Amino acid sequence: MNVDFINALIEIEKEKGISKDIIFDALESALISSYKKNFGTSQNVEIDMDRNTGEVKVFAIKEVVEEVENENLQISLEEAKQLDPKHEIGDLIKIEVTPKEFGRIAAQTAKQVVIQRIRDAEREVIYEEFINRENEIITGLVQRISRNNVFIDLGKTEGILPPSEQMENEEYKQGDRLKLLILEVNKTTKGPQIILSRSHPNLVRRLFELEVPEISDGIVEIYSISREAGSRTKIAVYSKDPNVDPLGACVGTKGSRVKVVVDELKGEKIDIVIWSKNIEEFIANSLSPSKVLKVIANKEEKSAIVVVPDYQLSLAIGKEGQNARLAAKLTSWKIDIKSESQFNELYGQEVIE
């Protein structure tokens, strides 16, 4: 190694932000391993690298003893005094043992260390970028599919869309462009692992934030979302400005805004309902598109009986109970739906008095 190598490290420090001292420290450790590997010794060695010229020297560290039992680790007092009369038993002394061919080995090791450090630094930059973007939306291209995992090209790196985060019945083909939620970013020995999601409720939240300026501006807020990915989502919204209709803002002119979200989610049905401080009103809204006649709420148990017209019972419950299930998730209340005639039969009173 030479001055050119030192100059190259200075350039790397400027361009990649990797301190040359970090590279030197890593290089010294790697050179100790290289020395032991190539020269088959169990010596206790130390690498001395001139950080201005790049010159490398290898020193064996030996303890001064009366009688040598291990030549690799010990030196006799007599020999030590030949090197320096001041040496005494118990001293640790450094003896240069640099092999003639070590310069070539050092150069090869240096190249490997520098490449690895640059790779590590680039991985760290990517990790820091994406760890700060958890729960944000990102656009990527389907790169490949392996063992049901979909690998997404994110530009600088690759993300994984695992089976658990895929939308039901959504097919993925190479080259497909998708919007995804950055669910989790983990550090691994192979670099950052970026877990993506197409099924998380927050994907819907972020898509509405992109499409509805009133939401990104904070005028309209999303109170809660319940989702069965690939099938149906309910989203509860409200407005901080009495002059802004939250439902109209989310739907858009002729449904233009909600259509963009629905198209991105491959036709997933989206019910937008109004949140209300009045729990009875909120529960009634949450069962949209069904009409609700009455809500009887038990606030202590957070449960409610909801009465709907007879002809709308199946609509209120939904296919396989989906509408009722999503309404319960949206409100965080247990909801028991009864038809008008069922309620009158059970409780012996008219719903509408």
Fold and architecture overview:
With 353 residues, this protein is of the alpha/beta class. It has 4 domains: 128 residues, NusA, N-terminal domain (N Utilization Substance Protein A, Chain:P, domain 4), CATH 3.30.1480.10; 64 residues, Beta Barrel (OB fold (Dihydrolipoamide Acetyltransferase, E2P)), CATH 2.40.50.140; 76 residues, 2-Layer Sandwich (GMP Synthetase, Chain A, domain 3); 65 residues, 2-Layer Sandwich (GMP Synthetase, Chain A, domain 3), CATH 3.30.300.20. It contains 12 helices and 15 strands. The strands form 4 sheets. The protein has a 5-stranded mixed β-barrel with strand order 5-6-7-9-8. Strands 1, 2, 3 and 4 form a 4-stranded mixed beta sheet that branches. Helix 2 crosses helix 4. The longest helix has 30 residues. It is elongated and about 110 Å long. 28% of the residues are buried. The mean pLDDT is 88.
